[in-house]
Each structure stands twice: as structure tokens, then as C-alpha cells.
Amino acid sequence: xxxLLTGATGFVGSSVLKALxxxxxxxxxxxxxxxxxxxxxxxxxxxxxxxxxxxEWLAMQLRDTDGFIHAATPEDDRGAFDDAxxxxxxxAYNGTQKHYVHTGGVWVHGPGWDITxxxxxxxxxxxxxxxxxxxxxxxxxxxxxxxxxxIVYGYGKGIPATITAAPKTGxxxxxxxxxxxxxxxxxxxxDLADLYVKVLEEAPGGERYLGVNGDNPTVREIGxxxxxxxxxxxxxxxxxSIARLGGDFARALxxxxxxxxxxxxxxFGWAPSRPSLVEELxxx
Length: 284
Fold this sequence. Notes:
284 residues; 3-stranded mixed sheet; alpha/beta; 12 helices
């Protein structure tokens, strides 16, 4: 397939790029700089340097593609960014059988011990902006799909760095995010990239897929893996975590979530195989 990709120099997008190329797809990556262009061409993609969002320009690019994966995550104005991007997708893809894969997140379902794609939306403030855009994709007249990743890790990157780089108490104990009893749904970035490719190639459209590996460690278990058998961890008052990490982000990290990713496994034969987050941290 001729595939357009955003976010190809980012944590998730760079792994998606590698998986697409390994799968034999012809990838064009939208980047913001020559440095980004050099990175993606080195991985086998064609680079196009252009600032996004630019609805008219992006729609023109999309007309010459078979599929589009949106893996970019701008820091500010995310809702407006995705609105402009989706306007381009609808312009170019509406009424076709072309495939579009949109990036969501499992946090939109709020706390729960058996979260599935059908769990009602109960998003924290940090991700409440996602749902209206995802509904546009799910109701579209093209093959639109939404992947909802858990907390992505791998190669020492991702949200788990909030623990690995956390400050310590006066006695040397590593501070957790909040009390530490909350579970995090997790996924290795390379397993997630494999799912993006499968959804692009095989999804029927109009569906969500949780991108989680079924391993749901507590924050305390993650912290203990960081410090090792001789180290100690300590709960942090939620107000202190909010002050340290920012209110909306910290409150999302307080969510107690567990999920298996069963739907994606059954639908696509997807089988996450990389080490769990705790295993990766212990092996550092």
C-alpha cells in the first residue's frame, strides 16, 4: 500500500514507520525539518517537509495514497490539530475504501478493571478532547479505525520515565506517582507498531481497538523494578504529584485501569511478544 504517515520521527511513529517498511509498504512521512527528513529516509521512507495542520495541502497528498496513519501528538491545540487533519481525510477519502488509522488512548475509558472497546467513555480532563474526533472517524464513509494504546514503553522512553526519573525522599526511596496502588495498562512500542500495520491492512472500519498487551502492573511494581531488590519506593501525596507533574497529566496517571486487548488479538491474530514493562526495567 501507498501509506502516508504523521509522527514518523516520534516515539510511536518511528516504530510504526519501521513496521510499515518491513511489511513492504511504500511510506511517505510528513516531517517538519530536514533533520526529520534525514531520519525517515534512513528508515526507507520518502520524506515530505511541510508544517501541519494544513488541510488543503494534506488532502492533495492523501488523494495519491491507499492509506493514512496519524501518529503525531502535538503538545498544544491537539483538538484543533486533529480537526484540521480530519477535514483533509474526509475531503480525500470520503466515499472510498481507503484506510485511515487514528490514534486515541485507553485513558478515555476512565478507571476500570476489565476495560474493553465497549467500556463507556469516562475521560479525564487530559484526554477529554479525543472523543468527538474519534466519533468522526468511527462514523466515516471510508475505512476508519481508532487504536487506543495503553501506556507505551520501550528503549527507556515513554510515560514510565515519570517513575524512572522521579525524585527520591531524604532516605533515598524513589517517589511514586500518587499512592502507587493504581494499575497501568501497558504496551511495548514495537508490539503497538505491529498492531497499527495489522489495523491498516485488515480492519473493516468503524471499530476501536485497545493497544494493550494484557500486562497491568501497579505503579508500585514498576517503581520496585526500577530500584531493584535493594531499593525502596515511597508513595507520594496526590497533591505533590499534581504539583510535580501537572494537574491533568497527574490525574490521568492516577487512573486504576486493567485491560487485555482481547479484541485485537482475536480479530487480527495480533500477539504481543516483547518483554513486559517490569521485565524491561529489571533488565536495565
